[in-house]
Amino acid sequence: MRGARRPDGIRTRYLEDYLLTSRAISLTPAQLHVATAEIETLPGLSTTGGDDVRILGVDEYKEAAATLVDAFADDDVIWYFLDTPDSAHWTKEQKWDLHVKSLEYITYAHCMKGLVVSAGPNHDCVALWMPPGENMDDLLTIMRSGMWRLNYQLSAEGRARFFSEFLPLLHDTKARILGPRDDESWYLVYIGTKSTSRGKGYARKVVDFVTRRADLEGRACYLESSHPINQVIYGKLGFEMKRNIWLQRAEENIGLDIMVREPKKLRERL
């Protein structure tokens, strides 16, 4: 995955390389010229720093994960795996430490196999995207990212909730909703903004960064949301509600909203 800091921003050659990294996209030079011009006229695509969007490499995974740790500090789904009956004797510090580690593992895995982007001068908003045809299920990614450690760090009930309920539910739901497009869609796995950086438009930037490309490719974008208010936010970004799913091993069920964004037409037809 091409990473990180580019003092000259995204120039035409770099943007062409970026657009053509997808296996399925095939553009003529003339089409690519139009697409490049189309995207370069839109704000927020420089990688020069500041408030613009940057693609992050593994050298920044801890900073990216720290943003998600802050953003999901009170998230019901995150704590569903940590606040279990058999972890009642754990201290708050132990649970928080595992909260941090789990998001570091996931962020590192996306730096390896996905696309990690940030907006704002200090990783103010971070999005973890999984591109079409990719996943983080291979042994090398699981080992290098540290994901394998969750088998030993979660409690027995936490493992059951995460590996036997949560992951299969997400996998099966995505396959049912998208059908034959499942492996060809963009998947917004995590997006989070620091509590001190909200309301500045950073989330739109890290979403638009990929949805513009998805529009060019004619691909759907898929996400799960754990907070009802996000339906409105994602709706403004073109996502539509598809269904609710529920985690059901705790005393109270925890809901997730499934949303899909269909590709939009660019201003210039390719």
TrEMBL record:
<protein>
    <recommendedName>
        <fullName>N-acetyltransferase domain-containing protein</fullName>
    </recommendedName>
</protein>
<dbReference type="InterPro" id="IPR052523">
    <property type="entry name" value="Trichothecene_AcTrans"/>
</dbReference>
<dbReference type="InterPro" id="IPR016181">
    <property type="entry name" value="Acyl_CoA_acyltransferase"/>
</dbReference>
